[in-house]
């Protein structure tokens, strides 16, 4: 089986150039590629376009890339609470494109699956529909949406093997599998890297064909945004 | 007048056995507390889980297990996990039958506005546009009026729209209202102690009143 | 958790009416819902439309339904070697719609996912394209294809739980997961039915939301079409 | 003149290290026997497997593990299984880089016909239309002429088309030919003992000959 292993995060992200279009997996701070983001922060690159459901928080995740002014544009469904983000947005330093979450997921899926366009009901009648083709099927209105692809997709999995096969855990799966398929170069960081053959082929979430580089990450913080315990209600 | 928990409690009565349900952030999340134990329903979290359980005890907290509000949660027996594309496939495909969410405004033809206030920092629509465009039944939980007393049940939404002609029912602190297919808020129930006249005065959209309007009851 | 269990195949298929549109999982004879097909053969119904990648063989699978003249129309990608099929087709008793396999898989996926139409390059310039919208994206031509849905989807899994969650084994997975999502009523037969909670939520291939009825099948034959062993080459 | 195994052997030389490959039924399947051991490649089966292994021994036969030709197979270390939509997502998305398949006719601009003969029972296109519409590199394995001596390398396909302008290379019993971007079969290699004149006489489409055409070698 083809071996996709690279030494570490630095090695994995070393050729990402300024101006690249990146996809970064994760929902909130769950399932984000912590090690790769750290390694990106060491690089002197800027003008990145980041496709990611959220934009991290001030001092974690993509928020750190924003703070370092590496990001020119965010494509997300919800950018949440991030003071630096807000400042850059209001000052015009940062461009933001907001996309309905399901449309974002499906556009990324389409990018990996060779589907250049599809129709969805999400956003009909809203400003999301501006400039998009509107079409009726079986009595309901839909928008045409295009695929999304990236120069580099950076994902985080629970386990992976040297052939690039990935298994995710819990809700940390989220956008990671679709992004893995939509990257021209896909970088996967995993908590546990095992030899090809150690994972049950029936249980692979992302087949290795989508992954070009894989490494075992270290020191995962896995920060929790909303720590809630029994008895609490928001 | 109902408080938030009572709005949630009243909405819980709309839940039917066997339903798959998506609960939005805020009051909708509270609905889970009032679903009767004899109903078998499954709560979906659009970040990739069917079968949301209670919040965890301290020792069971798992950063890899959160809901769409980014809160730590648990799973139930029979839960399943999936990616975001599959999650919204479920939603878009109409498999999630009931969506309960908050709103800033609802119009008499069922339009909803809940994602953007011009002039304020826009955080994004998240999954709301997908949810309102998809579920066969959409119930809105909201305050009848804004803090400065303006009706939020309007002829036409003033704020940017999240979805068109999608809301089926609205439960507010004052009333339960059905959106009629031909347009209009049909008044189904009054909150305890709230008069039809008060509801009428606080509803800018067309209010439809047929016969005696009962006061809500709570079991 | 909602309990989807029914007693057996007879119970599961008892209300399928004549003229219904069915989806049946399987590729070749692998992963086909054997028990449900047997139960359908006991019913006095006809005029069925069957959406299935293949049409079985003369004496197994959908071939048996053809022999009993229950099927009005097949929608498939490859109908293979089946003498009775050929006879009915040539005599005009049976209607056949042939669809590229990837397009079939994606149309069924779209049906379950609420995507009424999408674009694919498969079939451009061929008779498959006749009457379909042709459109260029990024310099390449694509066809617009519509979703497929069914009144009843009938699938076969390896393991399932009472909540309707399914796990498939090997290449018997094939069309089953997409069909499960595209049926108004989805019937799942499994080799092993376990209580909700016994399956790892991370390993579910088809979430129970898509399944309305589930039962444990019996006496699986799992017939092999091309038995090949080491040393042989076709 | 090459036999089927030699056609497969010659095609195997086109395989590059690290490729994901889909092999069609017939001669293409034989290619697997000739891929050098020092190349790491992965074979895809469009019914849902990456990493096709050898045929099983009797005791390892599993009816739940077949290839797209419905033959019983095995998996390799690092194999993965998936559903048919994912399988064709891989193919359509260009992740499967090389497709090798048979053909009844190929035209000088790269059109391929391999699924239907008018007047004969049509069995279906299976995954062929998806495969030829998608892979960046498509190599056809075929006989140069039909049994009655008609050229199958044509100006224009006479049979119903499977895909347009998709074939990059053709390996026949007589020759290796490249389809030029501007159209035409560029003769790259002759089978041992086969003359350029013979190839010319058996090629109906435009044959492009530049300089000396080498005879194939087999290691």
TrEMBL record, chains A, C:
SMART domains: CoA_trans (SM00882). One of its GO terms (molecular function) is succinyl-CoA:3-oxo-acid CoA-transferase activity. Its EC number is 2.8.3.5. Gene3D superfamilies: Glutaconate Coenzyme A-transferase. Keywords: Transferase. InterPro entries: 3-oxoacid_CoA-transf_A, CoA_trans_fam_I, NagB/RpiA_transferase-like. Transmembrane segments: none annotated. PANTHER family: ACETATE COA-TRANSFERASE SUBUNIT ALPHA (PTHR13707:SF60), KETOACID-COENZYME A TRANSFERASE (PTHR13707). NCBIfam families: pcaI_scoA_fam. This is Putative succinyl-CoA:3-ketoacid-coenzyme A transferase subunit A. The gene is scoA.
UniProtKB/TrEMBL annotation, chains B, D:
PANTHER family: KETOACID-COENZYME A TRANSFERASE, SUCCINYL-COA:3-KETOACID COENZYME A TRANSFERASE SUBUNIT B-RELATED. This is Putative succinyl-CoA:3-ketoacid-coenzyme A transferase subunit B. Pfam families: CoA_trans. The keyword Transferase applies. It comes from Cecembia lonarensis (strain CCUG 58316 / KCTC 22772 / LW9). GO terms for molecular function: succinyl-CoA:3-oxo-acid CoA-transferase activity. Keywords: Transferase. It comes from the Bacteria. The keyword DNA-binding does not apply. NCBIfam families: pcaJ_scoB_fam. Its EC number is 2.8.3.5. Belongs to the 3-oxoacid CoA-transferase subunit B family.
């Amino acid at each position: 089986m083809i071996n996709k292993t690279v030494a570490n995060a630095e090695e994995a992200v070393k050729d990402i150039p300024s101006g690249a279009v990146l996809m970064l997996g994760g929902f909130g701070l769950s399932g984000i590629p912590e090690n790769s983001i750290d390694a990106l922060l060491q690089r002197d690159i800027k003008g990145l376009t980041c496709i990611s459901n959220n934009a991290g928080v001030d001092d974690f995740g993509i928020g750190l890339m924003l703070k370092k002014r590496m990001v020119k544009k965010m494509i997300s469904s919800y950018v949440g609470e991030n003071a630096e983000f807000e400042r850059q947005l209001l000052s015009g330093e940062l461009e933001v494109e907001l996309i309905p979450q399901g449309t974002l997921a499906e556009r990324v899926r389409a990018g990996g699956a060779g589907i250049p366009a599809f129709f969805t009901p999400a956003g009909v009648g809203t400003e999301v529909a501006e400039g998009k083709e509107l079409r009726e099927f079986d009595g309901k209105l839909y928008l045409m949406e295009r695929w999304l692809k990236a120069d580099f997709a950076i994902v985080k999995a629970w386990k992976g093997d040297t052939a690039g096969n990935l298994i995710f855990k819990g809700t940390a799966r989220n956008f990671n599998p679709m992004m893995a398929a939509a990257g021209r170069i896909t970088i996967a960081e995993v908590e546990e890297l095992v030899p090809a053959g150690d994972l049950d082929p029936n249980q692979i979430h992302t087949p290795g064909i989508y992954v070009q580089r894989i490494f075992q990450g270290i020191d995962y913080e896995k920060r929790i945004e909303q720590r809630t315990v029994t008895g609490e209600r928001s | 007048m109902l408080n938030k928990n009572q709005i949630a409690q009243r909405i819980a009565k709309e839940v039917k056995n066997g339903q798959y349900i998506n609960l939005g952030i805020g009051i909708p999340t509270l609905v889970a507390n009032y679903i009767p134990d004899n109903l078998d329903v499954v709560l979906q979290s659009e970040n990739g889980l069917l079968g949301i359980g209670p919040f965890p005890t301290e020792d069971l907290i798992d950063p890899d297990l959160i809901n769409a509000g980014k809160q730590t949660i648990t799973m139930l027996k029979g839960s399943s996990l999936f990616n975001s594309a599959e999650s919204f496939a479920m939603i878009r495909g109409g498999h999630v039958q009931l969506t309960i969410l908050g709103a800033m405004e609802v119009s008499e033809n069922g339009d909803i506005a809940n994602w953007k206030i011009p002039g304020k920092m826009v955080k994004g629509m998240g999954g709301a546009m997908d949810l309102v465009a998809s579920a066969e039944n959409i119930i809105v939980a909201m305050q009848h009026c804004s803090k400065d007393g303006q009706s939020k049940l309007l002829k036409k939404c003033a704020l940017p729209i999240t979805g068109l002609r999608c809301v089926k029912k609205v439960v507010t602190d004052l009333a339960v209202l059905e959106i009629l297919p031909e347009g209009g808020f049909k008044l189904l129930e009054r909150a305890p102690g709230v008069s039809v006249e008060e509801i009428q005065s606080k509803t800018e959209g067309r209010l439809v009143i047929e016969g005696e309007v009962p006061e809500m009851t709570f079991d």
